[in-house]
Design a protein that fits this description.
By secondary structure, the protein is of the alpha+beta class. About 10% of the residues lie in helices and about 25% in strands. It has helices at about 140-150, 200-205, 215-225, and strands at about 70, 80-85, 95-100, 110-115, 125, 130, 160-170, 170-180, 195-200. A 4-stranded mixed β-sheet has the order 6-3-8-7, sandwiched between helices. A 3-stranded antiparallel β-sheet has the order 5-4-9.
């Protein structure tokens, strides 16, 4: 895929002491000789965040087919529960929770799904999330997904941005999108994230990263109007 790399990390992107290892200030010249502010192909090792290299079992898995989830009516009221793989009964919907993360410089966290992802493999996205489990609130599910996929154990200040009904490859669902300003660098799970980095929202809005998951594109349009 031909996509620009994330910009060099500007001053103020993270609080003092939280700058990612190896990050360059915005006025530094990249080591490959490019002028400051220019883009190069995606490069996890130098400009984004490489997936965490810890051994198997460090992270919780995405969710097994037997994982139980809530099914809701068109007014988002829980009606029944069932296995994740079974799919909702006729007329009912799934629930999903996700988060759009930004840094203190106003850039959005973009990631690329793995080639083995069950939906939208090798696509870019800004939504970190997944299915809401039985008895779980949207916010609790969003916090769990941030922990499982990006290694963030807590997310102070996480807020709900909007909730919509959408159709995805798994069927109709309610999607609740949260927003969080990251105060530390992510540690992505390599089973979920092939690459990630903070990028300018306008670059995403103008097609700088393709293919892009439709719900992620909608989130950028809603949260970063231009």
């Amino acid at each position: 895929m031909n996509a620009p790399a994330p910009d060099a990390f500007p001053s103020g992107a993270f609080p003092s002491g939280a700058r990612p290892s190896g990050a360059r200030p915005s006025d530094a010249r990249p080591s490959d000789g490019r002028a400051p502010g220019t883009h190069a192909p995606e490069s996890p090792a130098s400009e984004g965040y490489a997936p965490d290299s810890r051994g198997p079992g460090t992270f919780a898995s995405e969710g097994s087919p037997s994982e139980r989830v809530d099914y809701v009516d068109p007014r988002d009221r829980v009606v029944s529960q069932g296995g994740r793989a079974a799919g909702p009964p006729a007329g009912l919907l799934r629930r999903y929770a996700a988060t759009v993360c930004t840094d203190h410089a106003g850039r959005v966290l973009l990631y690329r799904r793995t080639a083995s992802a069950p939906a939208y493999p090798d696509h870019y996205d800004v939504l970190i999330g997944g299915a809401v489990r039985t008895g779980e609130a949207y916010r609790a599910a969003a916090l769990r997904e941030l922990r499982e996929e990006l290694g963030w154990e807590r997310a102070p200040g996480l807020t709900e941005a909007y909730r919509i009904r959408i159709d995805d490859p798994h069927g109709a669902c309610f999607l609740t999108v949260h927003h969080w300003v990251a105060d530390r660098a992510p540690r992505p799970d390599p089973r979920e994230v092939a690459w990630c980095g903070f990028v300018a929202p306008l670059t995403v809005l103008t097609g700088g990263y393709t293919p892009l998951v439709p719900a992620g594109a909608e989130a950028v349009r809603r949260l970063f109007p231009h």
